Amino acid sequence: MISYAVAPAAIITILGVLLIVLAIVVFLVATIVELKKISVGLDVVIPPVGELVAKTAPVNQLVDQIVSDLGAGTNLLEGLLVKKAGMDDAGGLIEGMFPGGGQAFFARNGRRDKPRRIGVVYTRGALQLARLGRGSPLGAPLRGAALRDPLYASASPRSLYPDPRGPGERPKSPVIGKDSPVQYNPSGDVPMPSAPLGEPAAAAATPAPQRDTGGILRYRRT
Amino acid sequence: MVVLGYVGALVLLFVVFPVVVVLLRGVLLAAKTIPSTIDAIAGVATAGSRDLDAVRLLYTTQTAVNQIIGVVANFGGSLDILLEDA
Question: What are phi and psi of A27, to 5 degrees?
């Protein structure tokens, strides 16, 4: 009697256990399949990652060495600039060429003030040109002797090259003013060249375009 | 006793079994997302490794930088002689 009463509950229990075992088997098998795929994928991934590690290994040392070399060069040039231009102008020149670099330059040299931006006021190289030529307004207050002769500096190199006008006689630039050989008619409303006063107009002898609406005759007063 | 047997069976069927299924399904779904990620990593790693072939050029760059710094140093020395100090 008891066995008949308990049987349905036992059947349900057995059914539940079977379902649970079946679910575990199904899901675990599927999970194993996925893990197998993962293992195969990792086998593919690991060699390129190893190459990445091997190829990037010397980068730090190389870049550090390059940065060290460039830093040495920068220090060399900055030292030369300070020696030649002074701290203020050097900072201003660096600030002018590389905005923010002058301030960093001052900071490296223990200064907290802002550099004058020379490059904003003058073009690049103006400071150096000023130091080369004491005759310029920019370089006038600078101390020391000029590095070039302000009077003959352009004539000297010009003497090294032939006259660009050539060996023959070629007309020079026209002379203007009251004593110029060619006078201009001041009474005309349209500026037009004419012959010097007292001489026949040479322009009249030259044929001009004869048109009703154009040509030189339309400027003539009748 | 009979009632407890029914209750236990029903709990097993309607509580334990769904919980087990949900948990195992979560594990399976998580495992299924990993292969696609690994495939993406493999592609990126291969491309990155190919890009890093240019790292060899850093040796040339280092040599060139050394030469340039030498030239600059010589040029600076000449400028030091040519130009007056501030």
Answer: -70, -40
CA distance B18 to A140: 95
Length of chain B: 86
Which stretches of chain A drop beneath a pLDDT of 50? 1-2, 195, 198-206, 208-215, 217-220, 222
Tokens 């091997």 identify what position? A54
Q: Is the ipTM beyond the 0.90 threshold? A: no
Domain boundaries, chain A: 86-139
A209 touches chain B (CB under 8 A): no
Residue A58 touches chain B, beta carbons under 8 Å:
yes
Q: Which of A97, A76, A101 is nearest to B79 (CA)?
A: A76
pLDDT greater than 50 at residue B34: yes
Residue A38's pLDDT is 94
**Contact A66/B at CB under 8 A:** yes
Distance (Å, whole) CA A196 – CA A194: 7
Report how far Cα B8 is from the mean position of its chain's Cα atoms: 50
